[in-house]
Amino acid sequence: xxxxxxxxxxxxxxxxxxxxxxLDPVFSxxxxxxxxxxxxxxxxxxxxxxLFPLVFLTILLLHDRQRWPAxxxxxxxxxxxxxxxxxxxxxxxxxxxxxxxxxxxxxLMQFLSSRFWLLVLMVMxxxxxxxxxxxxxxxxxxxxxxxxxxxxxxxxxxFVLWGLSVYAVNRYxxxxxxxGLAWIPILGPLLVMWVNKKKSS
Length: 201
Prior knowledge:
Elements: H1 2-17, H2 25-32, H3 40-62, H4 71-80, H5 82-92, H6 106-112, H7 115-130, H8 138-147, H9 149-172, H10 187-195
């Protein structure tokens, strides 16, 4: 029940422990479109939280034959990240009785496993990294972490998603080559799928 424990800890952290001011400066800048006031590293982490769910959507839908359908949790992760994925891994990721086929329609599986889709995600990953070329400050990120509850929660969420992505690759692709690449945040699982494309199920 490690996933349940992490889920409860994550909820508790977001609700009661995350540091931050009453008026969240980063959230205010995002809403007002004043992105120049946001440190590039903060912005990169924020944007990557929109890309991580697409990676999970790809992995889970290509192997969606478990007890619970994966697609609702994968779609919800686009908005709430690991908060929606952890319950799935805790309770739904169990063998389903009398199910040997994947729920995902064949046309969607072909698209999600295509090199075109994987390349699109890789380009998105590269574009996020390019924002860091503007220069970033770890000190500025630290200050944002303690002054913005959004940055505090999204940072923890990012690390949980990173760990879950490594787990997902090993869970659903146990015989894949180059699984060590999965440790590269976001890009790693995509590279594993790229290298093992012929073995996609």
